[in-house]
Design goal:
single chain; alpha/beta; Aspartate Aminotransferase, domain 1; Aspartate Aminotransferase, domain 2; 4-stranded antiparallel sheet; 13 strands; globular; binds pyridoxal-5'-phosphate
Amino acid sequence: MSIVDQLQRQHLKQLTPYASARRSMSGGNIWLNANESPYCNSYSVDDGKLNRYPEFQSQPLNQAYADYAGVKASQVLSSRGSDEGIELLIRAFCEPAADKVLICPPTYGMYAISAKTFAVGVTEVPLVNNGQLDTESVIEASAECKVIFLCSPSNPLGNALNTDDIEQVLQHSPRSIVVVDEAYIEFSSGNSVANWLERYPNLVVLRTLSKAFALAGIRCGFLLANDDIIELLQKVLAPYPLPDPTVQIAIQALQPSSLKRLQQQVTTLLTERERLQSALQQTPLKLVSESETNFLLYQCEDAAALVAALAGNGLLIRNQSAQRGLYNVVRITIGSATENDELIQQLRDYFL
Ligand SMILES: *Cc1c(COP(=O)(O)O)cnc(C)c1O
């Protein structure tokens, strides 16, 4: 027996790590598999303090994001992507081998993987009626779950949850932390629930700069919650979580001129999404759900074959078939106009 087999924690033996888009597929020249932005915007970095440790939390950054999100700076925690926010919540609230989190599949994979990494149980209450909450069942199951993860707009479905249902869960699960992951909120026609923080002490909102802000490479996310939750999470946060260049770029991305550019880029991507959606109506692909995000979800006859054929031509899309209820379903990120043209052409050729 190897030293690792002898010593590793028992629950990790069965754990399959998250198959991120970047880890599961390599190569290619058109990347439509990770919901990244096709835009690569320029920023400047001052290297005058790289010999110094960064701040634990940058006040200018938290203030800039608070202004953007319409909350107070004391209600903001910045983290290494919102993935770190997910992990902090589990580490701060859930006892290993005792507590549980609640997820509503199909949903973002990291909630369950983060929980399992810390030997925390996962209760599943599947979405119903085209991707909406089974509110009654969520509330019932919440009695035994410390943290409830809701994703709106949804990855992978793309639709937004009814805010009335989210409010029901907040009201009737007062002894659970209710996390609303708004990674795609900038693409949505619906409203954020961030302005409900005053009303609900159990609400947490997750945000990220990785999607509409086109900054997946700097790893910057935000967790919005009331002060007492933020203070608890700071106890388990690493001493120097965000690299200084990340903080500098994030602050620039939140300046008014950058936010104006963000708006224009989002508008273009939404127009491209409509164009792609109508072009794909001429193919056998079946749209699974209306999208409030920068991606579209399609059912086909053989998802693995389609993903492999496109990858063979350098174009990467994501197979979602492992998700509950999404057999032979693929997820396509909206790219630049040129990338979308290439995708449309390749799909026409494929289905010819
Ligand atoms: C992409 C994504 C995240 C992770 O974002 P990072 O900030 O890059 O860690 C979180 N939640 C959902 C639903 C996502 O799609």
